[in-house]
Amino acid sequence: MRYSKLFMMLILGSALLLSGCVDTEDLSAQTASVENGDIVTLDYTVMSEDGTVVETSNEESAENNNIEQTAEPLVFEVESGQIIEGIDKGVVGMSEGEQKELTLPPEQAFGPYREELVQEIPIQEYQNATNTTEVPQPGEQLMSQMGVITVKDVNDTHIVLDANSPFANDTMIFEVTVISIEKGETSTNDVEVPSEDSEAFTVDEGM
């Protein structure tokens, strides 16, 4: 009789583990690597292409670059569209404690500049929507459901609002460190032992 190839591989793998030939710490590191569907917590620093730090969750980096307020670490589900593409894909395969520098072109960072995201609205409409009598000033940044909106211009009757990221069209550099990995349901690192009814346990009879 001869066993299926997969069954033999399982037997050999078990034998290596029992004999101590396989470093279990290495296996543990492999199972801790980031995969699609994992919940990842990242420490990060964002820099413009010339190296200027614009935001960071790292206290030491904030102090060294005279940034008054430290951001919270990023927490997101990998490949779920919750974060910009370059980070979403860039963390796959990283392990806890690992650091990486990601240089992201605009299409993988904050996107190209889109003219359709620039809108002119009447001041009265803005005041009604925000329940205020104040008029924002050019350069002021407002929070909305779309994120940060920049006041591009103000005249006697209208406000010009720009919903593009302040870093649209820019290549950005992200220094990221994986703080923790919570394995998701779609992760594939965990090895499932086949049942007796599975193909891996079939026995071929022959001479």
Give the count of structural domains: 3
Q: End-to-end span in angstroms?
A: 7 Å
> Which descriptor suits the 3D outline?
elongated
Q: What is the highest CATH level, the class of the largest domain? A: Alpha Beta
Q: Residue ranges: pLDDT <50 for 5 or more in a row?
A: 1-22, 189-207
Q: What structural class do you assign from the helix and strand content?
A: alpha+beta
CATH topology type of the largest domain: Chitinase A, domain 3
Task: State the helicity in percent bands.
Answer: 10-25%
Could you spell the SSE succession in H and E letters? Answer: EHHEEHEHEEHEEEEE
Major beta-sheet overview: 5 strands, antiparallel
GO cellular component, one term: cytoplasm
Enzyme class: isomerase
Subcellular location: Cytoplasm
Domain PPIase FKBP-type: 37-122
